[in-house]
Structures are given as C-alpha cells and as structure tokens.
Amino acid sequence: MGSIDGYIVRTTFGAFVLVLVSLTALFWVTQALRGIDLMTSQGQTILVFLGITGLIIPSLVLIISPIALSLAVGYVLHKLATDSELIVMNAAGLRPWQLFRPFLVVTIVVSLLIVFIGFYLAPDGLRRTKQWDAEIAADVVSNILQTGRFMELDAGLTILVGERQPGGRLVGIFIDDRRDPKERVSIIADHGFVRKNEGGSYLVLEDGTLQRFEVGKREPALVVFEQYGFDMSKFGNPNKVILFSVRERYFWQLIEPDPDDPVYQVFPGSFRAEFHDRLLAPLYPLAFAALTFAFLGAPRTTRQSRAFSIVAATLAVGLLRICGFALSIWTQSTLAAAYIQYLLIAATLIVAGRMILNVVIVEPPAGLTEAIVRWGERFARRLAPA
Fold this sequence. Notes:
Blueprint: H1 3-32, H2 37-40, H3 46-54, H4 57-82, H5 85-91, H6 96-137, H7 140-143, E1 150-154, E2 157-165, E3 169-177, E4 183-197, E5 200-214, E6 221-231, H8 233-236, H9 251-255, H10 262-266, H11 268-280, H12 283-296, H13 307-331, H14 336-357, H15 366-383
C-alpha cells in the first residue's frame, strides 16, 4: 500500500469512526431515555441502567455502519476535491478505479465488522438484555418491595416499606399476614434487607416485633426479635421461561430453525427474512461506498459544481436502503423478494463499477440548470428594491 493509499485509508477510517460514534451516541441516548424508569420506579442502580441500555449498542452499530461509511467516503472525496488533490492525482496518472482501492479496503473492514456484529454480537446483546429484564422483573426488591405503598403480595398478605437506602437497606417495614384463617401475624421491623441464595429470596428483618393473634385467645402473643427471615421466593417468579424473538437468534439458529420452536411455528416468514437480512447486511457497505464514489470520485475542475453530485449520491444511497427495508418486509411473505434484493445490490455494484471505470461525471441536466437560473433571477428581481 502506497503513501497515498495509506493516507486515504487513515482519513476515511477516522471519519468513519467519528461519524459512527456520533450517530450511535445520539440514537443510544434516545433509546436509553425509554429505560429511565429502571432507576426511578424500580430502584435500579446507574450501573444496571447503563449495562442494560448499553447492550443495544451493537444493534445500533449494525444499522448505522453502512450510512456512516457512506458519509465518511463522501467527506474524504469532498476534502480531496476541495484541496484539488483529485485533479493532481488524475494528472499524475492515477485512475479513479485505482483511487477507489483504499476506500475498498476500509469497506471490507466495515463489512467484516458487520458480519461479526450481525451473526453474533448484536443478537447476543439483545438476548442478554431480555435475560436481564427477566431478572429485574423477578427481583422482589425492585418490583415488590416498593416504598411508600401498601403492596398486597397475596390474598391476605400486605407489606409496606417506608424507605429504601443505599446498599439495599430497607427502613420501616410492616407486614400483615392473614393467609391462615386461624391466626393473624403482624410484623414491624426497624430495618431489613433482601438476601438471595440457592433456596430463594428472603426478607431479613432486624430489630422488630411480631404479634400473633390466634383464634380463641384474647391476648396476642408478642415476640421481640433481633433478626427474622420472611420467605419471598414465591412472589418473584424467577423460573419464567424466556422466549427469544427472531432478532435475538444467532445466525446459525436461523439456518435450520427447530420445527418445534414456538416462535418459528407462529412466524416462519420472519425467520426467512432475518436470515437473508444477516447475509445482505455486509453487502450494503460495499454498495453504499461504490455509489458514493461513483458520484463523487471523478476529478472535476473548480468550475464544475459538486452540489448536484452530492445530492444525487445521497438520494441514491437513501433509495437503495429504503428499497432494502421494503423488500425485507416483503420477504416475510415470499422468498422471491429476497432474490430481488440480491439482484438490486448486484445491479447497483455493476452500475457504480461502470461509472467508476468510465470516469462518469454526474452533472445536472442543462434544462434543469437553466430553469434554476431563471427561477433565481426572477426571485432576485422580486426582492430588489423598486
């Protein structure tokens, strides 16, 4: 790799990383705000919040990477053109297809990254998110022992927690147990905490009193305790079966789905569409980079405007991606839509390749340019002072 190729690779990859991080952070913030209730209503820590919301980042990177690559290629080409470097390279005998090679190197790296993310990392993150959500849903501290509310855990069983302090310390605990028709138990504790072990979850109460009212007795039995364990295992439902959606399946699970899989039995078309989406995902960076270079990579003089080419490249990339999304949805109904998507990407690469080899300079039609000039002059005359 020559010095020019190395310079373009470094510049393009740096721009790609910058755009990818910026866009991913922006979309992550919008997604993370939806889970802010983990810290408010459910009392989870900031680490849990960041952990759960951070697991969606690979899925965001999977979607944003091709777009970020297209923007990075467009930025580098515009920079080379602005500094007249494209003209100099062309005058030195460097053809556009040779200039495309360093961009192709970056594109291959991005495609390999998408393969790893799409085949393993993104579904693994989504699976971990669902498993973590299930654990939080079964957490007696976050969902059952909510502060300031009388919670009826079972018929005849009511509990109140006055305050939750750092470190999991619960203050001001009251339990009213009337599940046994022959007796009623009231427990008041100064503080307590939840302890989990292989046997289940237990609310350990400290420094409190227990009053037992038995049927037929006039006086209650009063017990003062330093520590008392209350079994909470049956209220957490930790053994809930987790069903993973199609997007949460690894790639090898989409190749030959289990016929007895309940999700596959209900949504067989979704498995087919997701399988082809994973295969097509690494091809979109190549198509986007080729399209962007085809519109912007040809050398131009300073008098030739690049604005139309930039708009045309943006529209072409956006149209290709929109068609891909539409065909992906259609693939759920018919396999032919997947083949159309393969043909669409292949046709895009062929057209872009011919434009690069033939050094096609994309310029607006003469009629469109004249119409824009006329409209501009007419608008200027209207704004001119009388």
